[in-house]
Amino acid sequence: MKSGVFIVLFGQQSFEQALDTAKAAGLQSVEIGTGAYPGTSHVNAQAVVNDPAAIARIRDAVDSRGLAISALSCHGNPLHPDKAIAKAHHDDFVATVQLAEKLGVDTVITFSGCPGDSENSKYPNWVTCPWPEDFLTILEWQWNEVAIPYWKEQSAFCRKHGVRVAIESHPGFLVYNTETALRLRREAGDNIGVNFDPSHLFWQGMDPIECVKALGDSIYHVHAKDTKLDGRNIALNGVLDTKHYGDILNRSFVFRTVGYGHDEEFWKDLVSVLRLVGYEGTISIEHEDGIMSVNEGFTKAAKFLNSVILHESAGEMWWA
C-alpha cells in the first residue's frame, strides 16, 4: 500500500515543485487534479489530452522522481440542471479518461452528480427524506431518468479506454453513502467503484470500517482526511450543517488532518481492513483542515500516514 497526496493542495506551486514536495515528504504517489471542481492549476486535461509532448512531460516529471500517479481527479457534477455546467464537467471527465489512458493511469475520480427536480430546474436538488412523497418522485426521476442512463454510457466509454471510475461519496450528490454507491455500481456498470473518503462518512454518523467491509473490491482509491465531530453542536442541531466551514466553533463537524479527528488506532484499523478486502493501492492525503496551514497540515498528515502504513505493513510481515 502506498501513501500519496492530492496535489491540488499545492496549487500555488508549479507541477514540478508539487511533485518535489510530495517526494520530500516520503510519499510514493500523487493524485492530480485535471478539471471541474479541483481546477487545472497543474494539469488541464482538455488542453493536453491531444498533445503528446505535454503528456510525455507529465509522465517524465513523475517518473524521474520515482513517484506514481494514483489517479486523475475531475470531481464535478455532470448531471447539473444547468446544461452549461453539466457540459463543462462532462467534457472535463471525457478528456480526463482519455488522458488517463495515455498516461497509463487506471483510475479517474469524480462525483456521481446531482440533477435538479425536473427538466426545468435551475439548481441541484438533493433529497434527504422520503416525505412528503414529492421527494420520492424527485428521487426516482433523478436516478432512473438521469443518473443511471448517464453512468451506463460513461461506464461503456471508460471500458473502451481501459479506465475505471471511482465515485466519491459526498452529501449533496446522489451517491453519498454505501448503499447509493453500490446501487450505481450495480445498475450502471461494474467498472464504477468508489473513492473512499472516511471524512464524509464520519460526518454522517457512519462507521468507515464497516463501510469498507461492505464495499469490498468496489474500492478503487482512498483519501486520507479526518473529521472532528462537535458533540454539543450535534446535540443541538444534528449533523446536517449549512454554516460556513470557517465557522468552526459553531459547526457540528469540521474536516481535520488525519489523526486530529480520530486516533492512530482507528487509522491502523482502517489500513488493515482495506488490506483484508484486497485493497493495495494509494491512501491519498486530502488537506481541508481549517485550523492548520497547508504546510503544517500536510507535514503532519504525511508523517502520520507513513507511520501508520509502515506499522501495518510490519505487522503483516510479522504475521506472515
UniProtKB/TrEMBL annotation:
Q: Which residues form the Xylose isomerase-like TIM barrel domain?
A: 20-306
What Gene Ontology terms describe what this protein does at the molecular function level?
isomerase activity
Q: Which UniProt keywords apply?
A: Isomerase
**InterPro entries of this UniProt entry?**
IolE/XylAMocC-like, Xyl_isomerase-like_sf, Xyl_isomerase-like_TIM-brl
Q: What is this protein called?
A: Sugar phosphate isomerase/epimerase family protein
Q: Which organism is it from?
A: Cohnella suwonensis
